[in-house]
Every structure is written in C-alpha cells, then in structure tokens.
Amino acid sequence: MADEVVLLDFWPSPFGMRVRIALAEKGIKYEYKEEDLRNKSPLLLKMNPVHKQIPVLIHNGKPVNESLIAVQYIDEVWKDKSPILPSDPYQRALARFWADYIDKKIYVSGKKVWQTKGEEQEEAKKEFIGHLKMLEGELGDKAFFGGECFGFVDVALVPFYSWFYAYETCGSFSIEAECPKLMAWVKRCMQRDSVAKSLPDQHKVYDFVLQLKKKFGIE
Amino acid sequence: MAHEEVKLFGMWSSPFVRIVEVALKIKGVQYEYIEEDLQNKSSQLLKYNPIHKKVPVLLHNGKPIAESLVIVEYIDETWKDNPILPQDSFERAQARFWAKFIVVKWLLSLWKACRCVENEREKAMEEASENLKILENELKDKGFLGGETIGLVEIAAKIIAYWVGVIQEVAGVEIMSRQKFPVLFKWIDELFSCNVVNESLPPKDKLAARFRSLLGSR
C-alpha cells in the first residue's frame, strides 16, 4: 500500500523545517505544499481548524499538527529506519524536555531580537544568548544532543540556524563568538543531507525578515 | 525487580501536579509525595529542576524529570500496565495535541482572563472563549478528544475543568458556561467517574481561598 504524505509548510518556518528534516531522515517521499499565510488554503483551514497554522503533516488524508508532535509521529510510524527519539524512556523524557525548552524559549526570544531596538533589544539579545548558552551547556562535549547520534533535540533546534544571520545582523552580535561549541554542532548537523536540504539560505531568511520589519513598521 | 524509588515534588494547588499524581495512581506506582512551598523552594527542587525551578518534578531512582506532560509520557512508557496514551500512532498524536491544548490553552487563557486588568480583560476573555469554542466544536464533530480510549486527555480535562470552575467562581466571571458550551459540559459530566481523579482534587473551598488571595493581590 502506497503511503500518501503531504506537508503544508511555509519556507522560512523553523517549525516546518523540523518536519522536513524528519521526513528526509526517514527517506519518506512526500508532496510539499507551500502556503501563503496571508491567504491560507482551504486545505490548511480544513486540516488545522484549531490553530490554522503550518506545518501540517497529512498522512493518508489524516492531519497531524504541531511540529514536535508530527516529528514523533513520523518516528513512530516509520520506525524501522533512522530513529529520531532514543529508545530508553529516561533519555526520551530528557529529549522531550529539551525540545519543549527550545519551543518555549528560542523562537520567542529570537523574535524579540529582530523586532525591537535600543534598550529593549539589548535585553532581548541577553535573553536569547542566555538560552543558547543553556543549550550549549546541555550539549557539552557530545557530538549531538542525543549523544553520538543525531536526534530529536537536534531536529528541534537546528532549523533556527537558518535565522542566525538575521538575528545577528539585526542585533549586531555574533553567535559564533558567544557560543562556539554550538556553532560547531551546527556544522556537524549541516553535513547531513536531511538538514542541508531542509534549511533555506540564511540570507534569504534575512531578506524575509527585512520585509517583515518594513511591513510592521519596525525601524 | 529491584527496589524502585519514586518521589514526586508537588504543590497542592497545582493542577499539573495532580495530573501526574493521577497517572502514578492509575499505574499503581508507590511514590513519596513532597509538598513544596513555592515561596521557599527546597534545595532538592532547585537541584532537580534547575532550569524552570517548578513543580511537578518526578524523581525515579535518583533521576529527575520535569514538565507535567513529559513526566506523564515517561510514566506511561516505564510502567506499562493501564496505558494512559493510545497505542495507535495517529490517536497518540491527537492525544498529545489535545492534552497540550487543555493544559496550555484552556486553563491558562481562562486564568489570564480572570487576572487581567479592565482594558485587557475583554480581549483575554474573547481568547478564552475562542479556546472553549474549539473544544466544543471538536466534541460536537467527533464525540471525543484524542483517542477513543480513556486516558491522559480525559484525566487532564477533568482536572482542568475543576480548576476552571473554581477560578471562575472566585473571579466572578462566567466564560465557561453550560449554556454556551453544552457539549463540553456534557462530555466533562460523563467522563469516567474515577475515584483516583476525584480523590486527587483538593477541596473546593480550600482551592477557592487560594485563588481569592492570588487574584486579590494585584
């Protein structure tokens, strides 16, 4: 039986990228559908009536919403290849905890960096770098967050790398200077096809952010 | 099996702690409950949850786990009797989605609406109402949230509904009313009457007093 897999997505979304990476890790063939978030398709509104957001993974007509839930779903359904979550329950709990931390802290604090200026931006930068340093501490000397293998927390975090140039340029700081170990981890992740092919070019994301800034009248 | 040591750091008025407790009880896990004073957190709590410094924290054979939904999944995977999450992957994804919605959106948006100052209140109440409509519609459509077997979603809903009832009463607002959300109310009423859940709920007047002081001090 052929599986029908569709991904409703928006190219600069780090959440969408997570699902792209998971699908690529498992070698799953799928149809990518780009959404215009100012003009959401009837399919998106039907498949995610609750939040009307991307990404939405549609498997044989049934929708799975929320990127981390979709990644876990993919891991469980296509379980015979490239596991994303560890098999030990305690390690799984740790992976979920850190993915939840990333969800709560990185997107919001990163957004504040490019949306604000002056004093407010300095505060936002401090907070954002603080969270990255926390994650860098958790990574320690491991190759990946899960240890020797690329896994759930790596998938949750690495998409934000495509936004680093935008954060750095808007905020005038260098993530490499602040978190060199984290950048080394990024490089290791980017060596994986699944990651390199799922992340857009950083400069393209920066242009997108500039457009957003203009639209919202920031600076 | 070797001696298991299970400790739960909690706080009596936290619905998230109650959700974890119910999970442990359903699984028949023996545990030690440690009540935390959140104004004066124990060194143990700070050691086991240095990142968020919050309850609940589960300690299993010395290994700490934080965040209620993460803890519940761990409990479900470690003690396999009486599964709390559906076995089917799609149903499990739905259960995860709705559990998070119940815990994050339903409770928090209602709490926010009750705490808001006048000019922000209307918007917050609208948001809380929208979230309730979402639950109502899903129940109208499907008859259930998440999977078809009773588990995490039902436990969370029963507990959160109890908390929301008390908060509304204390705040003197009625965002979640039987008239506006009949299907939701019916579903909650009909949720399994489970001793384990009922026993875990703190007495209404004690909880009301707590919220009165929380809402009063602004």
Could you list some keywords that capture this structure?
heterodimer; A: alpha+beta; four-stranded mixed sheet; globular; B: globular
Q: How far is the first residue's CA from the last residue's CA of chain A?
A: 54 Å
Strand order of the largest sheet of chain A: 2-1-3-4
Mean residue pLDDT of chain A: 96
Shape of chain B: globular
Terminal-residue CA separation of chain B: 51 Å
Mean pLDDT rating of chain B: 89
Strand content of chain A: 5-15%
Order of helices and strands of chain A: EHEHEEHHHHHHHHH
Shape of chain A: globular
Helix proportion of chain B: 55-70%
- The total beta strand count of chain B reads 4
The secondary structure category of chain A is alpha+beta
Let me know the number of strands of chain A. Answer: 4
Uncertain stretches of chain A: none
Short synopsis of the structure:
Chain A has helices at 14-25, 42-47, 67-77, 89-115, 118-139, 152-157, 164-171, 175-178, 180-190, 193-196, 202-215; strands spanning 5-9, 31-34, 56-59, 62-65.
